[in-house]
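Kindly go through one protein, given below as sequence and tokens. The question is how this chain folds according to its tokens.

***
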Amino acid sequence: MREFAALALEEVPALAQDILREIRAEYPGLPVVLDDSGEPMALVGIRRALEGFVQQLASQEGRPRYHLEVFQEFGRGEGLHGRSLDSLQAIYRLGVRLAWRRLAEIGQQIEIPPPAMYELAESGFEYLDGLVDQSVRGYAEAAAREAGERLRLQRKLMELLLSERRSDASSGRSHGTGHGHTSGGAGVLGNGLGERAARVGWQLPERVAVGVLLRPAREAVAPAVGEGVLLDMEAEQPRMVVPDPEAAGRPELLRRAMTGWSGAIGPPVALADAAKSLRWAEAAVRLMERGLLPSGEVLHCTEHTEALVLLQPEELIEDLARRCLAPLEHCGPAHGRRLAETLLAWLETRGGAPEVAARLGVHPQTVRYRLRQIRELWGDEVDDPDRRFELELVLRARRLRGRLGRA
């Protein structure tokens, strides 16, 4: 074996050149990367692999040792350039086949017995597995680093996109000039958004919707929202930016992806107004957490406009309710609730006692009695359009909070 190793080591430089030549012929598109000395890294790797294998045979060590960082670098290169390891492993197999052909000739030349040659071949394939492992390790490191960098850049992009300051400035430009409307995508390129989007391969859409999610569990796996949807899972409440939310198939895709999750998706807006969509989504999630909107699913704000408008400014609505519903203060709680429900039904139907009674499920005579009491409590205010609007507003808000029955 020492004689075999000595002859093989003499052959290594020429053999490495021959193997590289064959690989380039088989894979003409293989990039040529030079090391610091100007020598092709592929040639260095082949030469080191051959030398390492032969030296292992000469030392007769039981298990091969791998100190071939160059093969890790090959794996990193594949990962960084977005290629799979399939072609690299095919190149390795070709190289081993060519190397084995020459080593077998040396074995015949010094008359190594066939059983020993079989062991030699087995060692060669074990050594190949080690080289592949080195490249897989480098590939995995590059993929993890690339994924981490992409997520970091994506979060930066989302921070800029959802910035209130940028949104306000953009709105000011669009409303403060007389030069017409600028589309969402093009109108924000000057803020560096286009450059950041290009770095993560995100094509700027005209319109977006922003979602805020509630984790079903701390260790929940990110929903498979598909390409194009920006997702930030680092926040306590994950956020996502959905491009072209009204595009065909997009709502159904999101519905399937969000199975098991809850949260809210804000209204579709121009790209420059993404922060506004985020505000509505955040408001909806707060109402969900208080039990004022349905939980256990991902809601669309556009389907809950009344609740978002009436339940959001709680202090203002409550102040208005105290003033508008002051006449009920002298009624008992149960009777006051019945009068409020009747008043709301009357305001919503604009009909007479039969229509209101049908809405409430009571006798028309009962409605007539309540309407006379309402007229006594509020007087001519119920005929004023502004007062009627305020009354309907506060009563609808109370119904949304569960403080009035639903007709």
Remarks:
- The mean pLDDT is 81.
